[in-house]
Amino acid sequence: MTNTRHDLIERALKQQIQKEKAVMESGLGWLASFGSTAPFVGLFGTVWGIMNALQDISSKGSASLEVVAGPIGEALVATGIGIAVAVPAVLGYNFFIRLNRGTTAKLEHFADDFLQATIQDHLQQHPIQLQKVTTNGNANPK
Which residues is 139 bridged to in the sheet? Predict the structure, then answer.
């Protein structure tokens, strides 16, 4: 096997590993986005609920439980939903990142082993002919 053929096989294996890596990573951006933004969406809902509670207090002139309970309850639900979305998204993202790293490592090990086996197979089929060098520097075929 010539060096060129070996280089072509190596390049093809590396390109395929990169393609597989891209496929495995597709969708992870969404998980990362949900995991990082959901708490803020929940916080926005909390602020919105508290603003509604303060408006109700202002319009009714009373801070009784009937006036405050509904908007504050909605605010707490918004916070809970934000957390309920963020935690699984972050856990899923971390899980898939670890899984992808392991799979990529296995693919790279396979490619290395395949290249070594290909080289060894080629050398067994086409052994290198060593030449004996005479004292005057001329090569004599063996």
Answer: 133
